[in-house]
Structures are given as structure tokens and as C-alpha cells.
Amino acid sequence: MILNEHVKKVYKMGEVDLTVIKDLNLEINYGEFIAIVGPSGSGKSTVLNLLGCLDKPTEGKILIDGTDITKLSSTELANFRGKNIGFIFQSFNLIPVLSVYENIEYPLIMIQNLPQKERDERIMKLLQEVDMLDQKDKFPDQLSGGQRQRVAIARALVTKPKIVFADEPTANLDTQTSNQIITLMRNIQKEFNTTFIFATHDEKIVTAVDRIITLIDGVITDDRRVVS
């Protein structure tokens, strides 16, 4: 699904070069449920941004589903991202003036421009999947943190992405809600064979995944599969 070869990311900080990712080599298969862990500043979010087509590497190659994304233009990258990738953020990133239904619908209008009937079918199915059907007309400020994250998950999945990247998706949630959200994502992964890649400090996610990749100072120091 994903192949990284000698990926390096350097940011310019004035006259100083800051190397955040150093010679990253990584393979990720279809349908994996993975946590990328490591201390703050280790490069976890940068890896997600690179794999999620939000940023380009300074050096190296990234192939996603057979496409070398490092060769795509900004427009091509945006189109590829819209068709293949979903994102879930710790701050939810919902649009406050849009209802639950409209937040989930938004990427279908902006990215895929699907007919109304097909949009309705997808959205209603996902609302049922995340148990938010009875909340579809509410606005984000009328929802709890767990409900907002359920909407964010539905929005990430509505384009039928092959991969979902989740950056600290449970950081703002209590323990019970976090466990519910993790179970929901695991069920979706099993049902749709969606690849989930988390950047996280949350031990609850770490104990739920099938594979743990440890990143320290931009280098993978451990990559192990979890035996359940």
C-alpha cells in the first residue's frame, strides 16, 4: 500500500537546516492498523504529513498504491489526496457553521462532486455506522467531544479512502469515549479493509493496534508486530 525509500525531510529555519526525518524506509500493507509512537518532536506528525500528501520530502521516494506521489504537482497531489486519503485530527477540525450532515458532505462536494442522491446514500450509511444518525442536523458546538470525533471519522471515510491518517485522535477525549472511538475505528478497518495509521502518545491506541513503529529523532528505532 505504502512504500518509502530513503525519505528525508529538511526544513529551513532561517539560515539553519533542521532535519526532521532521516533516511526513512518503510512498507505498509493494505488494511493495517498501525501506531507511530515516539516522544514529542520525534517526527511523527511530519511522517503523517508526508505520507498523507500534505507535504513533500526533501529527498527520497514515496509510493502509495503504486503511484509515486513525489512526482505529482500540487494540483495532482490534491486530487490524489482527495480520492485516496482521509484525515482525523485531535481538534476535530469541523466547520462550525455547518451541520453534522453538511460537515460530512463537504469533501464530497469539494473533492469528488458526487450527485446528490449518491451523497445522501453515503452520508446516511456512515451516520448510522458512527451512531450519529439522530444528531445529523446539529452543529459542532452542540456536540460532545466524542460525538465531534465520530463526525470527523465519518467525514474522513465518506470519500471511501484507502488510507486514514489519525493524528492524536483521542487526545481530547476521556477514557471511556476514547475506547469507544478506538473500537469504532477498528470495526471500520475490519469491515472496509481501510488502512489506519495513527500518530499517538495514547497507550489505549498502542494496545489496540497490530503494529507499532517507534520514531526517535526522525529515525525508526523499532518496528514490531503485536501478537494478540
Written description of the protein model:
By secondary structure, this protein is an alpha/beta fold. It contains 7 helices and 10 strands. The strands form 2 sheets. It has a 6-stranded mixed β-sheet, sandwiched between helices. It has a 4-stranded antiparallel β-sheet with strand order 2-1-4-5, with helices on one face. The longest helix is centred in the last third of the chain and has 18 residues, at 175-192. The radius of gyration is 18 Å and the shape is globular.
Which spans of ≥5 residues are poorly predicted at pLDDT below 50? none
| CATH topology group | Rossmann fold
Radius of gyration: 18 Å
CA(first)-CA(last) distance: 23 Å
Q: Judging by the overall fold, what is the CATH architecture?
A: 3-Layer(aba) Sandwich
Observed structural traits:
single chain; 228 residues; alpha/beta; Rossmann fold; six-stranded mixed sheet; four-stranded antiparallel sheet; 7 helices; globular
Topology:
Elements: E1 2-13, E2 16-28, E3 33-37, H1 44-51, E4 59-64, E5 67-68, H2 74-84, E6 85-89, H3 100-112, H4 116-129, H5 145-157, E7 163-167, H6 175-192, E8 195-199, H7 203-206, E9 211-216, E10 219-225
Parallel strand pairs: 3-8, 3-9, 6-7, 7-8
Antiparallel strand pairs: 1-2, 1-4, 4-5, 9-10
Helix pairs in contact: 3-4, 3-5, 5-6
